[in-house]
């Protein structure tokens, strides 16, 4: 099966796009979440300029991505430390 042609409305504009059927739900959800953020930022910051709102949302998304990447790195470091601990424990146990 080929790509689906869909339209995603962001703010006051519709954007046509082609997506794989298995990605359609995720893409539509992303559009809804973006519109919810637009509404929340508009109400919270009392800003109507779409460019400013979209810039703030892009910044917020990037900051969230960086935070997520940092958390992932910290978690991987903890896993590496725990694996090294277990390896050391196994090595000492097998030497006995």
How do the helices and strands follow one another from N- to C-terminus? EEHH
Adjacency order of strands in the biggest sheet: 1-2
Major sheet description: 2 strands, antiparallel
What's the shape?
A: elongated
Q: What Rg is obtained from the alpha carbons, in whole angstroms?
A: 22 Å
Mean pLDDT: 95
Unreliable spans are none
Question: Alpha-carbon distance between the termini?
Answer: 60 Å
The helix content, as a percent range, equals over 70%
Number of helices: 2
**How many runs of DSSP E, i.e. beta strands?**
2
- SS strand fraction: 5-15%
Classification by helices and strands: alpha+beta
Report what the structure shows.
- The protein has helices at 24-45, 50-95, and strands at residues 4-10, 13-19.
- With 96 residues, the chain is of the alpha+beta class.
- The protein has a domain at 4-70.
- A two-stranded antiparallel sheet has the order 1-2.
- Strand 1 and strand 2 form a beta hairpin.
- The chain is elongated.
- The N and C termini lie far apart (60 Å).
- The model has no long low-confidence stretch (mean pLDDT 95).
């Amino acid at each position: 099966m080929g790509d689906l042609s869909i339209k995603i409305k962001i703010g006051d504009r519709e954007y046509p796009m082609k997506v794989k059927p298995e990605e359609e739900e995720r893409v539509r959800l992303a559009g809804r979440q973006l519109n919810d953020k637009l509404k929340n930022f508009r109400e919270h910051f009392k800003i109507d300029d779409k460019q400013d709102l979209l810039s703030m949302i892009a910044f917020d998304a990037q900051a969230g991505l960086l935070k997520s990447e940092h958390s992932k790195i910290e978690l991987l470091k903890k896993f590496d430390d725990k694996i090294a601990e277990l390896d050391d424990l196994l090595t000492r146990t097998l030497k006995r």
